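During the reporting period the student researcher (J.K.) took over the structure-prediction task from the postdoctoral fellow and processed the backlog of single-chain submissions. One of the processed entries is reproduced below for the supervisory committee.
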Amino acid sequence: MVTEGDWAGLAAGRSDPTGELTVTACLQQGKGSAANPFLATASDGDQWWVKAPASGLTKALVTEYVVGRVGSLVGAPVCDVAVIEIPKVLLPWEFRPGQQLPTGYGSATRDLAGVVEEIYGALTHRNEDDNARRHGGVYALVDWCFGHDLQWLLHRSDQWRLYSHDHGWYFPPDGPGWTMDHLRVTADRNKALPCDPAGLDEAYLGTLADSLDAITREALRKIILEVPPSWPVTDAELECLGWYLEHRAPMVASRLRAL
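J.K. obtained the following structure tokens:
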């Protein structure tokens, strides 16, 4: 069994990305949520929703990025996430009314055209598209990452295809200020999704469980090392988070098989 000591020193050596994704144009102010993500065009030519640094939401950027990246490791239906640079050349610009855009590194989620958002909603449209599998991925993600403030995007023109997004309130204690003590206390706890599992694709639940069982320390460490040192999280906190995810993976796999 993995111990927290196995992760000691594994988050050391982080550095800000260079030559990666950069905001090239600011398109739309935030919509009034806590983090106020703004819509931007990036250096890859795509549009992204960007959460700026120094938003006052403590570790929300860290959580948003890590959950999206680990979700993709196991086949959960997460949106693409990235660390994105916000250069000074964009200033002056208010990313929300009355507040100038901070520069530095933000957390970005690739824009999906034609989607509608559901907050705290049931997992609907299970029989459409591949949602019987995608819903299983939500069960896996919420349990593994102690999900809270659950939000989905549903693609109206693609048979209500579901995406999980806006993960800034994942990890305990259900908020952007997760702590090492809360990670330790909840490491063995079930975080059950309060939705009826009837109709989930049982074979895909097995695939998700196999993916969780196959998670390696090095794969998790690679994601941890991508977290910019300018974000408000210490190496020790990230090492505890890496241990938490590695420790929980096999027990979440067992619970998926039990569904």
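The committee noted the following: The CA atoms of residues 180 and 237 lie 6 Å apart.
J.K. will present the remaining backlog at the next meeting.
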